[in-house]
Design brief:
The complex is a heterodimer of chains A (361) and B (304). Chain A contains 10 helices and 20 strands. With 361 residues, chain A is an alpha+beta fold. Chain A folds into 2 domains: 241 residues, P-loop containing nucleotide triphosphate hydrolases (Rossmann fold), CATH 3.40.50.300; 106 residues, OB fold (Dihydrolipoamide Acetyltransferase, E2P). In chain A, the strands form 4 sheets. In chain A, strands 6-7-8-3-9-10 form a 6-stranded mixed beta sheet, sandwiched between helices. In chain A, strands 11-12-13-20-14 form a 5-stranded mixed β-barrel. In chain A, β12 and β13 form a beta hairpin. In chain A, α5 packs across α6. Chain A is elongated, with a radius of gyration of 24 Å. The N terminus of chain A is likely disordered. By secondary structure, chain B is mainly alpha-helical. Chain B has one domain: Orthogonal Bundle (MetI-like fold), CATH 1.10.3720. Helix content of chain B is 71%, strand content 1%. Chain B contains 14 helices and 2 strands. In chain B, α2 crosses α14, α4 packs across α8 and α6 packs across α7. The chains are: A alpha+beta (361), B mainly alpha (304). The interface between A and B is large, with 64 and 47 residues.
Chain lengths: 361, 304
C-alpha cells in the first residue's frame, strides 16, 4: 500500500459504533421471523449472523437498516434508540445480496450517490468516489456502467458506495452469494482486511458457515428467530451450546450412547466426559466431530467402511457401525487402506462431548 | 493495508460489451439465405405500403391534368387544420401526463408494498380494452347530461362546464386516459419487471435519499424506455381517436379529417398522410428520448 493510499485509508476510517438488539420481535402473518432477539455487536467488530433459510438473520439486518419495523423491541446504536428512525437517516451503509448498483449511473456516480443526495459539491464527490474506488481496487473503473463490470467488481463498487458516507455501521447482506467460488474467496478476504483497517462495526449475514467462521470476530447462530449461541468461531465449533449449533456449524456425528453412574457417557466403545448438562434419561445421543473419531482397520471390527471422500490432506470415511452412520476425518496418509467393504474398529477421542436426549432431533 | 488489490481476480468485460453476450461473442454462425423470409417481408411491406402509395398518388395526380401538389399546399389554409391539430397535440400531451402521473406511482407502490395486488391492478388496467369506445362515450355523455341537472346548485356544476370547454375539452383527456391505461400498464409493467426496483429503492434509501428523490433520480431514470413506450402508445391512440371526440361533439384532428373528406377528398387524404407522418415523427422523437445514453443499459440484469 502506498503512503498516499494509507493517508486516504485513514481519512476513510470510521469510528465503530456499538449496536444492540433488544427483545426484537417481528412476525410476517403467522411466521415468526424474530422471536425476542437480544444481541450486542461491539464497536469495530465483525459479527456474522448465521443460520438456515428463514431463521430471521436477514430480517434482523433489515430491521437494523430501517427497511423493516419490528413488532416490538428496540435497536440501539451507541445507546441511541433508532428503532423508528427512517432508513435514509440511519447512518448505516449496506451492501445487498443482489447487484444493487444504479444501472443508469457510472461506478463513480454510484459511489458518489449518497454525497449527491447530501448536496456535496462536484469536486468533493469526484474526489471521494476516486478515493473509494481506489480503496476497493477499481481506480480505473469510474466511467464504467454496472453492466460493463463483472459481478465481483459490481459488489466492490457497492461496498465503496456503502462506505462513501462514512457510516457508523456497515451491513453486508450475503454480498458474496451471487459470485463464483474463486471471486467469493478473494473478496471475502479483502472485505475483512478493509473492515479491520477501517475499524467499522460490521454485521454480516450469511448462510455459509465457512464464510462466517473465516471472516467474523464472533458468529451469532440464529434458529427460528432466536439466538442459539453467539461466540468466537473457534469456540462455536469446539463448544457448541446447543445441539442445533453443533449440527449446523461443521459436520457432526450423532451416536447412540448411554450415561454411566460416573457421569460419563459411553458410545462406540469409548467413554467420554459429558460437556455441559446431561439429560435426565440414560439413553442419549452423543454429538462427536468427525475429526474426533478414530478408525483402525480390523478384520474383527464392528464397523464396515461404506465409502470414502478425498479432500486433499484429509479423507472422510463413512462407516456403518451397528446400523449408525459414522463419519470420520482422517489424515489422507492414514486412510489409504480403508476401502469400501473393509471392517474396522471405531474409537472416540477423549474430549468432552455434547449429549442430547435420544428423541431430540 | 486497507486497500483492496487493484487487479480484480475476476474477468473484466470490455466497455460496451453485454455481459450475457461475452461467452458467445467469438462464435459467429454464418446463416444461409432464406428466400421465404424475403417473401414474407415483401408481402408484409406491400400490405402497408400499397395503400400509402395509392393514397399519395391520389392526392398528387389528377387524370388528364397531371401531377399537382395543390392538395398539400391547400392544407395550411384549410379551415380548422391548425386548430384541430394543435388541439389533438394538446390533448395527447395532457393524456400522457395524466396517465403516467396515475400509473407510475400506483405500479411502483404495488411493486414495493403489495406485490400480491399486481394481478388485481393488471385486470383493472386491462379492463378498458374490453369496453368498446362507443360504450364508454355513451356512459360519459349520460353523466355529462345528468350532471348539470342534479349538480346545478353545487360547485361541481362549474367543473362539469369546464371539462367540456371547446377550447380544451378536458373530458376527452379523462376518457383517453382510461382508454390508454392498458397500453401504459403493459409498457410500465414490462419496465418494472426488468429492473429490481425494490433493491434499487432500498439502496437509494440507504444512501440517504428521500422518497421523492428516489422516485425522480432512481426509479424514473431506470424506467425511461418503458415511460417512452407508454407515452408513444398513448400519443398514437389520442392522435387517431375518432369515436369519443365525434360523439361528444368536439373537433380534434381525426374528427376534422373526416369532416372535410366529403367536400375536399384530396385534401382529406393528404391530411391523413400528413398526420401519419407527424405521428411517426413524434414517435421517433419519443423513442429517441427513451433510448438510454451511450453505455448505459436499458435494463438491469443479474449475472449468473
Amino acid at each position: 500500500m502506498t503512503s498516499a493510499t494509507a493517508e486516504r485509508t485513514e481519512s476513510t476510517a470510521a469510528t465503530g459504533a456499538r449496536v444492540e438488539f433488544r427483545g426484537l420481535r417481528r412476525a410476517f402473518g403467522t411466521t415468526v421471523a424474530l422471536d425476542g432477539l437480544d444481541l450486542t455487536v461491539e464497536p469495530g467488530e465483525l459479527l456474522a449472523l448465521l443460520g438456515p433459510s428463514g431463521c430471521g438473520k436477514t430480517t434482523a439486518l433489515r430491521v437494523l437498516a430501517g427497511f423493516e419495523r419490528p413488532d416490538s423491541g428496540e435497536v440501539l446504536v451507541d445507546g441511541t434508540d433508532i428503532t423508528h428512525v427512517p432508513a435514509n437517516r440511519r447512518d448505516a451503509g449496506m451492501v445487498f445480496q443482489s447487484y444493487s448498483l444504479f444501472p443508469n449511473l457510472t461506478a463513480r456516480d454510484n459511489v458518489a450517490f449518497g454525497l449527491r443526495v447530501r448536496k456535496a459539491g462536484t469536486a468533493e464527490r469526484h474526489a471521494r468516489a476516486a478515493e473509494l474506488l481506489d480503496l476497493v481496487g477499481l481506480p480505473e473503473h469510474g466511467d464504467r456502467y454496472p453492466h460493463q463490470m463483472s459481478g465481483g467488481q459490481q459488489q466492490r463498487v457497492a461496498l465503496a458506495r456503502a462506505l462513501a458516507l462514512r457510516p457508523r455501521v456497515l451491513l453486508l447482506d450475503e454480498p458474496l452469494s451471487a459470485l463464483d467460488a474463486k471471486v467469493r474467496l478473494s473478496l471475502r478476504e479483502e472485505i475483512r482486511r478493509l473492515q479491520i483497517s477501517l475499524g467499522i462495526t460490521t454485521v454480516f449475514v450469511t448462510h455459509d458457515q465457512e464464510e462466517a467462521l473465516s471472516m467474523a470476530d464472533r458468529v451469532a447462530v440464529l434458529n427460528a428467530g432466536k439466538l442459539e449461541q453467539c461466540a468466537a468461531p473457534a469456540e462455536l465449533y469446539r463448544r457448541p451450546a446447543t445441539a442445533f449449533v453443533a449440527e449446523f456449524v461443521g459436520t457432526m456425528n450423532r451416536l447412540p450412547g448411554r450415561l454411566t453412574d460416573a457421569g460419563l457417557v459411553e458410545a462406540a466403545g469409548s467413554r467420554l466426559p459429558v460437556d455441559g448438562d446431561a439429560p435426565g434419561t440414560r439413553d442419549v445421543e452423543v454429538l462427536v466431530r468427525p475429526e474426533n473419531v478414530t478408525v483402525t482397520a480390523d478384520p474383527d471390527g464392528e464397523a464396515v467402511v461404506v465409502s470414502t471422500s478425498f479432500f486433499g490432506s484429509v479423507t472422510r470415511v463413512h462407516l456403518d457401525h451397528r446400523g449408525t452412520t459414522v463419519k470420520a476425518d482422517l489424515p489422507s496418509r492414514d486412510a489409504g487402506g480403508l476401502t469400501p467393504g473393509i471392517r474396522a474398529t471405531v474409537g472416540l477421542a477423549p474430549h468432552p462431548a455434547l449429549v442430547v436426549p435420544k428423541a431430540e432431533r | 493495508m486497507a486497500a483492496m488489490t487493484p487487479t480484480a481476480p475476476d474477468v473484466t468485460p470490455e466497455p460496451g460489451a453485454r455481459t450475457a453476450d461475452r461467452a458467445t461473442a467469438p462464435v459467429r454462425i454464418r446463416r444461409r439465405p432464406r428466400p421465404w423470409r424475403g417473401l414474407v417481408l415483401g408481402l408484409g411491406g406491400a400490405y402497408f405500403l400499397v395503400p400509402l402509395v395509392a393514397s399519395f398518388v391520389f392526392t398528387v395526380h389528377t387524370p388528364g391534368q397531371g401531377v399537382s401538389f395543390e392538395a398539400y399546399t391547400a392544407l395550411l389554409s384549410a379551415d380548422g387544420f391548425t386548430e384541430s391539430l394543435l388541439l389533438s397535440l394538446g390533448l395527447a400531451a395532457a393524456t400522457v401526463a395524466l396517465a403516467l402521473l396515475l400509473a407510475v406511482p400506483a405500479l411502483v407502490a404495488v411493486r414495493l408494498g403489495a406485490p400480491r395486488l399486481r394481478p388485481v391492478v393488471e385486470v383493472l388496467c386491462t379492463l378498458p380494452l374490453v369496453v368498446p369506445p362507443i360504450a364508454l362515450v355513451t356512459g360519459i355523455s349520460t353523466v355529462l347530461r345528468w350532471g348539470p341537472d342534479h349538480l346545478s346548485r353545487t360547485p361541481l356544476y362549474q367543473t362539469f362546464l369546464a371539462v367540456q370547454n371547446e377550447d380544451f375539452p378536458f373530458v376527452l383527456v379523462l376518457a383517453y386516459t382510461v382508454m390508454a391505461l392498458p397500453f401504459v400498464h403493459r409498457s410500465l409493467d414490462a419496465g418494472l419487471r426488468a429492473v429490481d426496483v425494490p433493491t434499487l429503492v432500498e439502496a437509494a434509501r440507504n444512501c440517504g435519499a428521500s422518497w421523492p428523490y428516489v422516485m425522480l433520480r432512481v426509479v424514473l431514470p431506470n424506467l425511461r424506455s418503458s415511460l417512452a413506450g407508454a407515452a408513444f402508445l398513448t400519443l398514437a391512440l389520442v392522435l387517431g381517436e375518432f369515436t369519443t371526440a365525434s360523439v361528444l361533439g368536439f373537433r380534434p384532428f381525426a374528427v376534422w379529417i373526416v369532416s372535410i373528406s366529403g367536400a375536399q377528398a384530396r385534401v382529406s387524404v393528404a391530411v391523413s398522410l400528413l398526420s401519419l407522418l407527424i405521428t411517426w415523427l413524434l414517435l421517433l422523437v419519443l423513442s429517441r428520448a427513451g433510448t438510454a445514453p451511450a453505455g448505459a443499459p436499458r435494463t438491469s440484469r443479474k449475472e449468473s
